[in-house]
Fold these 2 entries.
Entry 1:
Amino acid sequence: MDTNVRHSSGLPANVLDPDCPSRVIFQRIGDKWASLVVQVLDDGPVRFSELRKMVSVVTPKVLTQTLRSLERDGLVTRTIHAQVPPRVDYELTDLGRSLLEPLAQLRKWAEGNVPAILAARDAYDDAQDEALLG
Amino acid sequence: MDTNVRHSSGLPANVLDPDCPSRVIFQRIGDKWASLVVQVLDDGPVRFSELRKMVSVVTPKVLTQTLRSLERDGLVTRTIHAQVPPRVDYELTDLGRSLLEPLAQLRKWAEGNVPAILAARDAYDDAQDEALLG
DNA sequence: AAAGACGGTATCTATTTGATACTGATAGCT
DNA sequence: AGCTATCAGTATCAAATAGATACCGTCTTT
């Protein structure tokens, strides 16, 4: 007996199944900004304007959308402080924090393989040029 | 002395730096289809039409774009067999395979947290409804 | 002769992302 | 009183991207 999470259909969660909610979740983690935001929030609560600087360069509209999604999915909390000028803090939930480690692995991979990937691109682009000039 | 990979600026690779190539790479891994394709290719070479079925539902245009990018970045090879009807196999490179583990972690997270996230969404949406109905 | 397999490309539309300007509440300065 | 600044966003419009759908060339099978 497997111990995988199952969804309403009774099937185990499977990212490759287009109807499995895990797929939507998986693709949302891969969102262009969401995963960066989560990583920035690692160091504790951050207010909107700070977040914008730390995740640069993201427009306020897109950052708002990203944060609303993260909040809806229970990864982030939004706290409004009754101050003037306003102060709104965003902070990771436990669920959000649980995502930090998988993300860190991916980040490490990305940062560690920059040279290999740039080299591959150069080789590919050169080959393309060759083919065209042939 | 740290052992991080550095890029041409001499700074260590850092996903949070908008000018660091690792950021582009990080965001490309998070591409809607690329990471699914890589996972499907875990079991060995797969041809185009098979891939389309396994990663459903992706249009041929988008799958082609995804595969070309993966090929350019050195994660995937494309092999044309001189047959009729044509056979084109896509296969992971060593670099591509090295991405499997970080991706598997993320996948596990996504699949394992489906219930928590769906519950958070329900709660959030209910709260929104409350606020609107006053 | 017609239809089908395969790996795409071409074309058009819908959705998403992004740039830029603006709002409302209040405090501090002149 | 009037001007400016801070902050957390919205509103509006343009640009880039993703997706739906139809089609192509080559050969084999019926």
Entry 2:
Amino acid sequence: MKNNLYIYNALNRKKEKFEPINPPFVGMYVCGPTVYGDSHLGHARPAITFDLVFRYLKHLGYKVRYVRNITDVGHLVNDADEGEDKIAKKAKLEQVEPMEIVQKYTNSYHKNMEQLNTLRPSIEPHASAHIIEQAEMAKKILENGFAYEVNGSVYFDVAKYSKKYNYGKLSGRILDDLQSNTRELEGQSEKKNPFDFALWKKAMPEHIMRWPSEWSIGFPGWHLECSVMSTKYLGDKFDIHGGGLDLQFPHHECEIAQSKAANGYDSVKYWMHNNLITLDGQKMSKSLGNFIMLDEMFSGDHELLEQAYSPQVVKFFMLQAHYRNPLDFSNKALKAAQKGLERLMNGISALDKIKPAKNSSFDVNIIKNKSYEALNDDLNTPILIAHLFDGIKKINSVIAGTETINENDLSELKALYNIMFFEILGLTNDSESSSSNGKLDDVMNLLLNLRTDAKKNKDFETSDKIRDKLNEIGITVKDKKDGFEWEIKQL
RNA sequence: GGUCACGUAGCCAAGUGGUUAGGCAGCGGUCUGCAAAACCGUCUACAGCGGUUCGAAUCCGCUCGUGACCUCCA
């Protein structure tokens, strides 16, 4: 399996050639959501980023197993090791079973991800279904001497681990700095050091999500689930581990430590992180309360939104920035993305109207090669999209008569847009379904033919009235030399 | 306070030693009954100050500004 793909590996902080451990197989694990609430804009970014990775690797011919977990236990509200479980807290609030919460928000996550046209992962494991494996891993770390038990809880001994391995190598942190900078929080007295983290927590009486173990009736620590589920389904060593940049420390750092402490090696070859979405320059976060739900984006029902933005617009907006750079949300930028996407889609539909000439006045292969170059350079979608726009300009020029294209190049170009736009970027033309309504077509043809008659009779008052009223309804009419075109406006 | 990023035209956003990124908006033109769409043209920037270099937005230093992580978050 040949490829020329370079991806940025957070472990070494540079772009590296992508060479899977066992080609043609590729294993990719991505940290999924903790399902205790509806998905917000921030959830869309890793989903879109790693969907792109998934799609491109498949396009290159790899057999990709994409595992993305559902966190439904062990993720606590306040501190990693103290406080209420997020799921349990929400369950209490909504007066339902914890697993009802899990199901409800898993469903809503799936719905949003489908709207964004991201592919389902190959396996979507739940943390709560892997309690035994998590306890086993904790035991292994304990046996290897990198953890200690206190009052039924098991903690990872970071200081001891650091003597043998490098804790902080992923996030570039130095233990001494952590030591002097970690805040002292209440209830951490059990731990030898404040930066130690829980592998197993004894459940307090009010804690309803609990399982038996040899140490206590309790629940696993948050970081353990990803170490366990990734290797269970992808093998001891696998290719790509992804997630949001905010998870780099401590979550991913702890995963590395757990793997090394248990097995003596890091399981992951390439660590990839998508950067975050900001709102007015600030990260969206629960504590600041400045986050927008995906449902609100799609409906426009939020005080910060000037209009609704379709899932495709939101996706395109994100793909126009590189995944490793922060992206600031604004109505202005979203609207620009919407216009740009329309231009791109109109151009792609226009491909079908082109009549091929004998010769081509431009080189389709250049666009094609540059598109692949962009993807191979750490999935540089902004560059890819720029080249796609260049192609659209050529397409429009052919229609305008200033460029020509031959039959062979035309089918090459069509294939290219199918691959890049639909298959790899995973964008869709969501107006297509509505325009394939036969009866509506008939009605529109009737109406617009009447308008054409009015125009012939120089009755522009009537023709403009039809066009303006249709526009109000949400249908754009475009006059052509030899007739007319109409389309249902997208949000 | 510690660690790490970033600062690119009106807005968004790539690039990262020499060559037009791209999109949106604006302006002028072509087309059109008028629009819309499209095409052609135009506007052409790299926070500031020093340094390295034949050459720097790109490398180095300092200054200013913004943000992230260090605590749950994608």
